[in-house]
Specification:
A hairpin with a 3-residue loop joins strand 15 and strand 16. The chain has 361 residues and is mainly beta. It has helices at residues 2-7, 12-15, 18-36, 50-56, 343-351, and strands at residues 65-76, 79-88, 96-103, 107-114, 119-126, 131-140, 143-153, 157-167, 174-184, 189-199, 207-217, 221-231, 234-244, 249-261, 274-287, 291-298, 302-312, 315-324, 329-339.
Length: 361
């Protein structure tokens, strides 16, 4: 009888409760004001300085020695291609690398194998428009690595959770766990934080640290700031600035400061001092009709340049050079990339007969 009596009470009576009604009204008012601000998604905390790092900086583009790459696309939708890469005189690149890539609107797969047996694989899966799961595995002689990451992109925020080499088989939790959140608070300003917890082995103590970040977007410029709180390795500050001067010219600058506890007798913890290190760099990118030129200079006395020239629609040549004035050293790199695209695929791309998918990179 009691169950039937409570079941007969309309659910509307619950919402007529003054406390519940007040909470609902406050929640609705908050979301209405949030929608009125017209906020956009700020990206991930990890890529808070993406514009400088991926657009003008040479850190991810520089190479030395000789490099040749041949790729063969087999399909435009879904994307599927194989590639072979040869290199000489480069310590950071394997003499031979074979890779395969597959991409659709919801799946991205990439596998790479080097001549020494090293294997790496990436797998990204888009569950819906907001949630993407990224998996990265690397197997090298004597070591291996596994990372799993989930990115949730809301209308005006992005939340990420990442685990690197997680394990519970040794009687406890070990690995590296990273949680981050970046929220747009105004149409121009975004604020966020990142928390890291790690334990290398069960016989070692866990370590944790926090990082704070801010990103401000102007009409044609973007500035970012990251601050790492005090941890076992010290603290640090990193700031970057990117600006688009014209449709073809972009410039940027980056400043990084690190504060680490010194050793005893060297101004360390007993002496009350810190070891301070800093670096700064400035870079620029100019886009010509069929080529792109990048240049960068840093506080360590290094001047770097990189020129990418498109000879044919399927052939690209890259020249890289670096001069270290302090060490009196110079490095040069030359690369050639050839894409063996069939006439049918080129004709489909030119006519737009096949809509290329947007994989979850």
């Amino acid at each position: 009888m009691a169950d039937e009596k409570f079941a007969s009470i309309p659910s509307a009576h619950v919402y007529e409760n003054p406390l519940i009604s007040s909470i609902r009204n406050t929640y609705s008012s908050f979301w209405e004001r949030r929608e009125a601000l017209g906020l956009s998604n700020p990206g991930t905390f990890e890529n808070i300085s993406r514009e400088f790092q991926r657009d003008v900086s040479l850190t991810n583009f520089m190479f030395t020695g000789l490099r040749a790459e041949w790729s063969k696309p087999f399909s435009n939708s879904p994307i599927f291609q194989l590639s072979h890469q040869l290199s000489m005189g480069a310590q950071s690149m394997s003499p031979y690398t074979f890779s395969a890539l597959y991409g659709s609107s919801s799946v991205f797969l990439q596998g790479t194998m080097e001549n020494d047996g090293s294997l790496s694989a990436r797998s990204n899966y888009r569950w819906n428009d907001s949630l993407v799961t990224k998996t990265n595995a690397q197997i090298q002689p004597g070591q291996s690595m596994l990372s799993i990451e989930n990115d949730y992109s809301g209308k005006d925020f992005t939340a990420s959770l990442k685990a690197m080499n997680p394990s519970i088989i040794e009687g406890g939790v070990k690995g590296i766990f990273i949680a981050s959140y970046l929220q747009s608070v105004t149409p121009s300003l975004a604020l966020g934080l990142e928390a890291v917890w790690q334990r290398v082995a069960m016989n070692s103590s866990p370590e944790a640290l926090l990082s704070y970040g801010a990103k401000y977007k102007g009409s044609d410029w973007i500035a970012s700031l990251q601050m790492q709180s005090e941890g076992p390795q010290g603290s640090g500050i990193n700031s970057s600035y990117w600006r688009k001067l014209t449709d073809k010219v972009s410039v940027g600058a980056d400043i990084s400061l690190q504060f680490a506890p010194g050793l005893s007798g060297q101004g360390g913890l007993l002496g009350g001092g810190l070891q301070k290190e800093g670096s700064a760099s400035a870079a620029a990118k100019y886009e010509f009709r069929a080529s792109t030129f990048r240049a960068q200079v840093d506080s360590k006395g290094r001047l770097s340049c990189l020129l990418e020239k498109t000879i044919l629609p399927t052939v690209r040549v890259t020249f890289a050079g670096e001069m270290d004035h302090l060490k009196q050293q110079a490095k040069v790199g030359v690369g050639v990339s050839v894409e063996a695209t069939s006439e049918d695929l080129m004709e489909q791309a030119e006519k737009g007969a096949v809509q290329a998918p947007s994989p979850p990179f």
